[in-house]
Amino acid sequence: MIALYAPGVSLVHRTPAGLKLPAVAAGVLALSSMTGLAQLGTAILATILLYALARIPWALAGRQLRPFLWVLGAVLLFQILLSGWQHAAMATGTLVTTIALANLLTLTTTVSAILDTCQRALRPLRRFGVDPERVGLLLALAIRCLPLVADIVRDVSYAQKARAAHHSVLALAAPAVVRALRTADALGESLIARGFDD
Q1: Which sign, positive or negative, has the C-alpha torsion 20, 26, 29, 33?
Q2: Cα dihedral across residues 163, 166, 167, 173: positive or negative
Q3: Most C-beta atoms within 10 A of its C-beta, which of 4, 70, 120, 160?
Q4: CA distance between the termini of the chain
Q5: What was the pLDDT predicted at 181?
Q6: What is the DSSP string of 55-112?
Q7: What is the value of pTM for the model shown?
Q8: Are 10 and 55 in contact (CB under 8 A)?
């Protein structure tokens, strides 16, 4: 999971999550409606300026994008073959900028602040049967489970390397899925024990 980066509190760090969340959502919506490379270039420049304002090291920003490189490469190749280099540049640039904006949010905002903001935003929906606290718990579990699954996959991969096992997607996926399901069962039992079984 992307951890909060705050060696020095910047203006971006101090901006409330209640402003940053809709700002990121609006930015992503604007990116999805862009049709020209000039517009995309402006959005990329604005994102770079926001990272500079937040004083996020460029090496750290690059590391946050590294897990998505294979997806970006696949999108780029597919779009080049299907629609040409201009559409490929638009699709890949939009995806990179969207990921960068999401990373900037998580690097400058605590998880608790994000969850509190989501719960406050959902409170008006309580009259329609929506439980903001349950939704907050769901978001917290999702945030916690993403790095947990990544840790499981990494541990299984290390175990295969230690045994000099044949490396294949199936050999990695099968034990990782089994461990993930066992972890989910244990988590479910813990929630039931705490009264979250209805």
Answers
A1: negative
A2: negative
A3: 160
A4: 29
A5: 77
A6: T--HHHHHHHHGGGHHHHHHHHHHHHHHH-HHHHHHHHHHHHHHHHHHHHHHHHS-HH
A7: 0.69
A8: yes
